[in-house]
Sequence to fold (352 residues):
Amino acid sequence: MRPWEKNIRRVAPYVPGEQPKGDNLIKLNTNENPYPPAPGVRQALKEMDYDQFRKYPDPTSNELIKVLSEYYQVNENEIFVGVGSDDVIAMAFMTFFNSELPILFPDVSYSFYKVWAELFHIPYETPVLDDNFCIHKEDYYKANGGIIFPNPNAPTGLLLPLEEVEDIIARNQNSVVIVDEAYIDFGGESAVKLTRKYENLLVVQTFSKSRSLAGMRIGYAIGHQNLIQSVNDVKYSYNSYTMNMPSLRSGVEAVKDDRYFKESIGRIVKTREETKGRLKELGFSFPDSMANFIFASHRERKAEEIYKALRENHIYVRYFNQPRLDNHLRISIGTDEEMKEFFGFLEGFLSN
Ligand code: PMP
Fold:
């Protein structure tokens, strides 16, 4: 061992879903949107003058923050923008979770939370979801150094009603509560409207799912101006220029086209509901998802076996080889054509 090796930080990293190469495949494994971004994004990118890339981008992301503040009817100083919600949440962990008390998040939720907690040396506890994968608000009534949970939850898709979200926030006014709303646009009621009522609430959303811009890496947080000021202080102590110019432009155009946004969500929700029906017919059961994915297990066949068979046929879904999750598949909602092919293969496979 080299002397410096003992000084290396050892971490068990988050493992993102696979990004297989090639055109002839059906990708239902990372909850991407199957439809393209708003047409205005394409136009704006085409019109970008490449000479401007000599310069640094706007460190304040002002243009994007402005359209978001109009969209959500909040002030500009109540919004923070980052490189995907992963970046926003990581900054928020660094900013708000510095207590000696453990932070709390559900045992089954976004697996990155644990990785950040370990990376930043934040103590944590993971209240256990019940057998139906439901969050119990009472588990969050104990002393803590902060709380985070996705709503709808991932990978289950289950939505916690806004009254229960509010109950958790209201009972924890001594710590910051982060509600990760990566999938909220697919059917839930957002907690953004509570940010004026609770100074300890930070709501995080992303352009990666409902706005079809995972590749541009845009996320944001909405909360009381003091919270936003604090995350900005951490951001400027770390990296001033997080957002690049094409991402900022794309984000602005995506927010402007609300009609396209709603149409695209409407299509995904329709396909999701049809998918639930087909999955049931084929012997699957699943929590009732309000997100753009379904977390399903089959009454007879092992999830891993189905996952492998699908994969051999170039259909990718997400399989988590972990206790409690290893007999489920997380199936992202694709286009109707993609779901048709998915079911075409599945029917044949299950009848053998
Ligand atoms: N939160 C949850 C619950 C997610 O599933 C994801 C997607 N992996 C993210 C946050 C991060 O998404 P992004 O960084 O693309 O905004």
Notes: Residues 162 and 243 are 31 Å apart (CA to CA).
